UniProtKB/TrEMBL annotation:
GO biological process: polysaccharide biosynthetic process
Record key words, sorted: Pyridoxal phosphate
Family, similarity comment: Belongs to the DegT/DnrJ/EryC1 family.
The protein's name in its UniProt record: UDP-4-amino-4, 6-dideoxy-N-acetyl-beta-L-altrosamine transaminase
Superkingdom assignment: Bacteria
Residues modified as N6-(pyridoxal phosphate)lysine: 185
Any one Pfam family match given in the protein's UniProt record, by short name: DegT_DnrJ_EryC1
Keyword presence, Disulfide bond: no
GO MF annotation terms: pyridoxal phosphate binding; transaminase activity
Organism expressing this protein natively: Hydrogenothermus marinus
Record bears the keyword Zinc-finger: no
């Protein structure tokens, strides 16, 4: 199709290309000095003590759950309105995801419904900042402290977002925060992710976990010599490369500009679609600074049953809409585990209504106008 605008897309400029080429010409292309440089820049940006980068957001989640000691037969509470990785990463460790329904307006987990799902097997809460709108973390922490639970912020949508004027990722109200650097996210390293924390023990565990469970210091046994290393956990090869980290460092310098552009597109959409009779717009609560990874619209009752037709028509017009998400427990794998339809009715209704419109920094004014024009064309 000649004019097709995807829902999300990376923005790569000459500075990014130059940064990657410099690494390709250097002595290190796998794990070298750029890894540490990127980690320090990331931690500094969000205001956390430590960052550990991984080769994907999924492996970062796996590492985070492992570092928080999630084990076989433990339970962890999360939302069904997310990508499958949020709960899959717990399944990798033999733990059981417990899904809690969502808020109708933000798509975030409904904190008021968490407590009733807590059992003596519950180990942690994994909350997702859906579409870039922060969860009310102060309330989450209050609840977690009451039951002595760990908190994971899945902020794969929310790099650059703020909660009560402080950046998501500072871990003020959580044990760890996860970011993703997939090309549709706020910055990209191709594939990549990170775990942020203020806890040194968690930090050191993450470093070992991403490297096959191997450490070259902090030994259990007496070392045989300078070559000595130890495998202390069953870890994985989840390492990011210096090539990716160099791209991440370059991208991070542009992040504020990227967020500003996303928020500006959302502002234009909000104005153009205000009070329309077809769909509801995303919200921004008073405690939130939305980073707009997504711009999710929700079809009104009259149009809900026509979602497939509307989706198809928009794509035919060159508007690369997407749906975020099919509730995780409706996937066949989860159905085989015993999860049933009807578990989270608000999430299921949200899914029947939600369509994500294109929003990314490389969009031109012409692109934005095109999307608005075609949306009205399809609905009218």
């Amino acid at each position: 199709m000649e004019n097709f605008i995807p829902y999300g897309k990376q923005f790569i400029d000459e500075d990014d290309i130059k940064a990657v080429v410099e690494v390709l010409k250097s002595d290190f292309i796998t794990q070298g000095p750029k890894i540490k440089e990127f980690e320090e820049a990331l931690a500094s940006y969000v205001g956390a003590k430590y960052a550990v980068v991984f080769n994907s957001g999924t492996s970062a989640l796996h590492g985070a759950y492992f570092a928080l000691d999630l084990k076989k037969d433990d339970e962890f509470i999360t939302t069904p309105m997310t990508f499958v990785a949020t709960s899959n990463a717990g399944l990798y460790l033999g733990a059981k995801p417990v899904f809690v329904d969502i808020e109708k307006d933000t798509g975030n987990i409904d904190i008021s419904k968490i407590e009733e799902k807590i059992t003596d097997k519950t180990k942690l809460l994994s909350v997702v900042h859906y579409s870039g709108h922060p969860v009310d973390m102060e309330k989450v922490k209050e609840l977690a402290d009451k039951y002595n639970l760990k908190i994971v912020e899945d902020a794969c949508h929310a790099l650059g977002a703020k909660y009560k004027n402080e950046r998501i990722g500072n871990c003020k109200y959580s044990d760890v925060t996860i970011f993703s650097f997939h090309p549709v996210k706020h910055i990209t390293t191709g594939e990549g992710g990170a775990v942020l924390t203020n806890n040194k023990e968690i930090y050191e565990k993450l470093l070992i976990f991403r490297n096959h469970g191997i450490t070259k210091d902090r030994f259990i046994n007496n070392p045989d010599g300078d070559w000595y290393y130890e495998m202390q956990y069953l870890g994985y090869n989840y390492r990011m490369t210096d090539i990716q980290a160099s791209l991440g460092i370059s991208q991070l310098k542009k992040l504020n500009r990227f967020i500003e552009k996303r928020r500006n597109i959302a502002k234009i959409y909000n104005k153009a679609f205000k009070d329309n009779p077809y769909f509801d717009l995303p919200v921004e609560k008073d405690y939130a600074y939305h980073s707009y990874h997504l711009y999710p619209i929700k079809l009104k009752d009259k149009y809900k049953e026509k979602k497939a037709e509307i989706f198809r028509s928009l794509r035919k017009e060159g508007v690369g809409v997407q749906v975020h998400y099919i509730p995780v427990y409706l996937q066949p794998y989860y159905q085989n585990l015993g999860y049933k339809k009807g578990l989270c009715p608000i999430a299921e209704d949200f899914y029947k209504r939600e369509i994500s419109l294109p929003i990314f920094p490389a969009m031109t004014e012409k692109d934005i106008e095109y999307v608005i024009e075609k949306v009205f064309k399809v609905f009218i």
